[in-house]
Structures are given as structure tokens and as C-alpha cells.
């Protein structure tokens, strides 16, 4: 009888851990889903004298990709983003997260620049407003400026076709 309570507690904990291991860690929900995109007020990477203006994007469905030159998966996804965004004519904007300008520009020069513009978030404050948990992350933004979907991790052809494009097409 005295072993029954610890055994029940152990079994309960084992069940909770087992259920947790079955979940996809990239499927973390975003508090921003169906809410307005926070203001992205950062200088443009390639033209620091100008600032990103998300208000000009109202009326169109677009993607925001959070990336950094120090991020290996970000480097891996750039060639795919170049091809996919151009092929499907999806406006793709970047948020260069906690990075330095020179390495970021060098990375885009090396792999190509899929972004119409990239805002700079040198101190990570914009990323905090977005709830960024790690880079890369990609958000689908609707014509009203609301976040409709968030993908954590690199974008490849499979992610583009099975997750991002169905949302974009439904919103167009």
C-alpha cells in the first residue's frame, strides 16, 4: 500500500512525458495568429536611410521571413526562397534578426536575395514583439495586416507547398 502512491505518481509522470515526446516542437502556437502584425519599425538592410513601412503592404498577402547570417538553417533556405517566391509571385520580406549589416549583406550576395526588402532588427526588439522563438521563422500576413500562419524552421519546397502556399492561396 505504501508503494501504491509513488507508483501512481511515477506512472502519471511517465504518461505526461510520453505525450510530450509525441508533439512536434516546431508546432508551437503563436499568440499573434489572427491578430495584427506588430509594427516593424526598422531601417532597411540595403538602404539604412529608409525604414520598413508595413502599412504600404495593406491590401496584399505577403510573407515575412525572420533570418540571420549566423543561422545555418537560414543559409540553407535562401536558395529555395529565391526560387519559390519568384515562381509563385509571393511578396517576401525579411527581418534580419540580431545580426550585423556586413555579414547579412555578404550572405545575400552569396546566395541571392529573395526579399523585396529586409528590415534590420539589430537588438531583437521587433523579434520580441513578433514572439520569435528562433530563426528562421516565416509568417503569412493577410491583406488586412493580420498574422494568419507561422512556420518555425527552414522553408523548403515541401513546407512551401504543403503549409505556406495553401494559406496564401486561401487568403488571395
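^ Assign residues to that structure.
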Amino acid at each position: 500500500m505504501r508503494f501504491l502512491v509513488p507508483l501512481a505518481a511515477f506512472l502519471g509522470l511517465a504518461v505526461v512525458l510520453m505525450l510530450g515526446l509525441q508533439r512536434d516542437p516546431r508546432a508551437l502556437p503563436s499568440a499573434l495568429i489572427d491578430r495584427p502584425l506588430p509594427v516593424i519599425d526598422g531601417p532597411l538592410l540595403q538602404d539604412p536611410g529608409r525604414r520598413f513601412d508595413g502599412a504600404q503592404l495593406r491590401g496584399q498577402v505577403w510573407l515575412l521571413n525572420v533570418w540571420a547570417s549566423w543561422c545555418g538553417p537560414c543559409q540553407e533556405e535562401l536558395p529555395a526562397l529565391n526560387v519559390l517566391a519568384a515562381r509563385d509571385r509571393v511578396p517576401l520580406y525579411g527581418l534580419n534578426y540580431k545580426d550585423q549589416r556586413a555579414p547579412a549583406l555578404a550572405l545575400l550576395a552569396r546566395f541571392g536575395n529573395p526579399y523585396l526588402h529586409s528590415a534590420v532588427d539589430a537588438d531583437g526588439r521587433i523579434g520580441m514583439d513578433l514572439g520569435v522563438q528562433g530563426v528562421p521563422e516565416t509568417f503569412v500576413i493577410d491583406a488586412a495586416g493580420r498574422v494568419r500562419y507561422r512556420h518555425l524552421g527552414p522553408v523548403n519546397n515541401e513546407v512551401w507547398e504543403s503549409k505556406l502556399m495553401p494559406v496564401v492561396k486561401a487568403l488571395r
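The chain has a mean pLDDT of 91.
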